[in-house]
Automatic annotation (TrEMBL):
Protein's organism: Paenibacillus ferrarius
Keyword set includes Membrane: yes
UniProt keywords, alphabetically: Cell membrane, Lipoprotein, Membrane, Palmitate, Signal
Source species, domain of life: Bacteria
Residues of the signal peptide: 1-24
Name this protein carries in UniProt: ABC transporter substrate-binding protein
Length: 544
């Protein structure tokens, strides 16, 4: 087996991975929405590839297993989806799954081992969020993964057609030098927004208060939740390396708790903006008055957030559409039929303003893309197998599962059966996980929805009313190999210091008057270099 990468240089470079989440917009995936074009029929079955393929070869694939599916079977091959995929493609696949919560560590060990499977599903997206130090261009140079240009051209007509039809998508899934590096997860237009502020509507109605629009409205509401509903943590959120509110509240001050693009197309690092001080001052005031969860930095898993919302300790949060709002509504209504969560707009300072930024992802989701390893002896077969997911029949399987079991056609629209939607033992997501692939490299279908409440449908529209499309920085810009080395030196220290000071400012452990001193320290640590690298990479991306 060929040498993939110098292990010493690999371990040194890993720091760029560790710090990545601080510098790039959160890419946490919402499995509540599909990933595709309005209809999956945009790509016909591959011309020249007859499925099922006649082959005796077995492919190997390293990829995460959906946490819902893992409670039913230990391996994707044993699921109804895995069995049907093998039947329809004719290709047997041996899957290896990293342990839940250990994918990053086990990915690093996999790459360093020089014993790679045929395909690897991970975040190959480039930029600060690259799973591989140096991004996809470096991974290709190290022969860890293959450039896919010739393989897509000859063996993947379904994906090839999609890229020819959608130049923006085409630009997203290749490097600055023009190398395609992975088979992408493709979201539909109605699957780009799936997270935002939400609030207890039953409490608002009881208190005769409207859904808050502005920062002042939120102050009034949270104060009422504390004083009249006895909420010990009126607003709470999960803490995952940072307070996971995305751009809610902070965005009202026309900045972000991350890199963003300003109105002139320039990359900015929000946490050193002058107006970021105003955002910190607001959160500090809320914390001091008991409106922001006093234990917010301890909410490191979903269970603590669940407990506070379900015990009426909290009345508002920022969360996901399906894995958050839908799940909490389902649980909450069983205890209290009046329990109701509704979306609130991303708040602004003035009534009627349009929110500067909010959660909005891109049609390409780099966090769940599959690359072909550099020494795969079955590269052509792997590409034919992967391309199946971008054709009409393959997309139906990936999105809806097995016809007659998990879905049926109703007026030519694939519709989940009652076996999936009204199962007595398991919820919708648990059932869907067995028959489909909630996240991964495939052409999704906008007709698929996990929404079970009208409030979820309304939330997508409400959270979508922002200027995020102008200001969210793409996840898949690709720094050069040299730029990536520079980022590896700087990112970890800057990110750690920023987050340490964020918590101290909000909790009142550091006076807000030290903000300028904090900004100067981040500049001394090299943030201007990081901004320039991201700007250069962003400019190159725009010229692709």
């Amino acid at each position: 087996m060929g040498k993939y990468v110098n292990k010493k240089s690999f371990s040194v470079a890993l720091s760029v991975v560790v710090a990545s989440s601080v510098f790039v917009g959160c890419s946490t995936q919402e499995t509540g929405k599909s990933s595709a074009s309005p209809k999956a029929s945009g790509a016909p079955t591959a011309a020249g590839t007859v499925y099922p393929i006649s082959t005796q070869e077995t492919l190997t694939s390293w990829e995460g297993i959906d946490t819902n599916l893992a409670s039913f079977v230990p391996n994707l091959a044993e699921s109804p989806f895995g069995k049907q995929l093998e039947k329809e493609t004719g290709v047997k696949v041996k899957y290896t799954h990293p342990a839940d919560g250990q994918s990053k560590e086990q990915f690093n060990l996999l790459i360093a081992s020089n014993k790679l499977p045929d395909v690897i599903e991970y975040n190959w997206g480039g930029g600060g969020a690259a799973a591989y130090p140096g991004g996809p261009e470096k991974a290709i140079a190290d022969k860890v993964i293959l450039p896919l240009n010739a393989l897509i051209d000859k063996q993947a007509p379904n994906l090839k057609k999609l890229l020819q039809q959608d130049k923006e998508l085409d630009k997203m899934i290749k490097t600055d030098s023009g190398n395609y590096y992975a088979f992408p997860m493709i979201r539909p237009d109605n699957g780009l927004v799936f997270r935002g502020p939400m609030i207890r509507k039953d409490w608002l109605d009881e208190l005769n208060l409207p859904v808050p629009q502005t920062i002042d409205d939120w102050y009034t509401v949270l104060k009422a939740f504390k004083e009249k509903k006895g909420a010990s943590a009126p607003f709470t959120a999960q803490y995952s390396n940072e307070l996971n509110i995305q751009d809610a509240f902070i965005g009202a001050f026309k900045t972000a708790n991350r890199f963003y693009i300003d109105d002139q197309g320039k990359v900015k690092y929000g946490p050193i903006d002058p107006q970021f001080k105003d955002a910190l001052t607001l959160l500090r005031k809320w914390y001091a008055e008991g409106l922001l969860d006093k234990d917010f930095a301890l909410n490191t898993d979903s269970k603590s957030l669940d407990n506070k919302l379900m015990s009426d300790s909290a009345g508002a949060t920022v969360g996901l559409l399906s894995g958050g709002m839908g799940r909490w509504m389902d649980t909450g209504k069983k205890k209290n039929p009046k329990f109701q969560l509704v979306a609130a707009p991303y708040p602004t300072l003035k009534q009627g303003e349009r929110a500067f930024i909010g959660q909005r992802d891109f049609k390409y989701n780099p966090a769940a893309s599959k690359a072909v390893s550099g020494d795969s002896k079955n590269a052509e077969l792997a590409v034919k197998w992967l391309d199946y997911a971008y054709g009409e029949k393959g997309s139906l399987l990936f999105n809806f599962g097995v016809e007659g079991e998990s879905y049926k056609m109703v007026n030519n629209v694939p519709t989940f059966t009652e076996k999936i939607t009204k199962n007595e033992k398991f919820n919708l997501q648990q059932m869907v996980s067995q028959y489909t692939k909630p996240n991964g490299p495939f052409l999704g279908d906008a007709r698929k929805s996990f929404n079970t409440f009208k409030e979820q449908d309304e939330a997508i529209k409400i959270w979508g009313e922002t200027d995020a499309v102008k200001h969210v920085m793409p996840l898949f810009i690709t720094p050069t190999i040299e730029e990536s080395k520079e980022l590896a030196k700087l990112n970890t220290a800057i990110g750690s210091y920023k987050e340490e000071m964020f918590v101290k400012f909000v909790m009142g452990k550091e006076p807000i008057e030290k903000f300028d001193e904090y900004v100067n320290r981040i500049k001394e640590m090299g943030i201007d270099k990081v901004i320039k690298i991201n700007q250069d990479a962003f400019d190159r991306y725009n010229k692709r």
